[in-house]
């Protein structure tokens, strides 16, 4: 799928046409150190492995009019396809959900009180992401999968006196992902921007760095008041990380090694 450079500024509210190409911003290549710095800013590579979906991804948008709902879902599918992410067919069971709410904090609190299954089996870090107050809540359910397909999650029911035997190497996989967002923060943002931001938060598990600016232009800066104007769509650095993660040949390495291989692929275009 061809990749062209962005020329148009982001348009508020109205969904842009889907031309069949991913439009990115920034230079075509970045030095290794810049790519590595970017990855370390937006991902926690020191704790375990980098998780990715292995089951086909099925996005669902809730809380938007149909004229925006379908274009956002289509945009997510378009970008995911360009990065070799497996996609489910139509009428699939959603495992990537984007919820637009009048008040995200209030919705999350109501979900907590009702013990919504969206929080089931989350580890402590994912629960913090889900419950942390603010206009955007994003979290993923990550499981550990062994070579024969057995999976365990943070709160899996397992007899401590009779544990399962892990068969060889294991990998971290994303089971599902959720983003809950205030509608008011979407004002002035395009369908393309919102879809691309969700892609990075869910398919990659990336987040804007806590201390501010990112090493390179990134759609993760979409809601950063210090970045004006924000990128019009996913950037080459973002897309390089997404593609590097989903084209990674060895999912059993530790996060630091995975990050190094991805950064190399981002610059050279070749997996190691």
Give structural notes.
By secondary structure, the chain is of the alpha/beta class. The protein has one domain. It is built from seven helices and seven strands; from the N terminus they run E-E-H-E-H-E-H-H-E-E-E-H-H-H. The strands form two sheets. Strands 3-4-7-5-6 form a five-stranded mixed beta sheet. Helix 1 crosses helix 7, helix 2 (66-82) packs across helix 5 and helix 6 (236-246) packs across helix 7 (255-268). The protein starts with a strand and ends with a helix.
String of helices and strands: EEHEHEHHEEEHHH
Taking all Cα atoms into account, the compactness measure Rg is: 18 Å
**Largest sheet, strands/sense/barrel:** 5 strands, mixed
Unreliable sequence segments: 1-17
What amount of the residues lies in strands?
Answer: 15-25%
Global structural class: alpha/beta
Structure annotation, total helices: 7
Strand order of the largest sheet: 3-4-7-5-6
Number of domains: 1
Approximate helicity band: 25-40%
Query: Total number of β-strand segments?
Result: 7
Termini separation: 22 Å
Give the CA-based shape.
globular
Mean pLDDT comes to: 86
Give the SSE layout.
Blueprint: E1 3-5, E2 22-24, H1 32-42, E3 59-62, H2 66-82, E4 96-101, H3 104-113, H4 124-131, E5 136-146, E6 151-152, E7 170-182, H5 191-204, H6 236-246, H7 255-268
Parallel strand pairs: 1-2, 3-4, 4-7
Antiparallel strand pairs: 5-6, 5-7
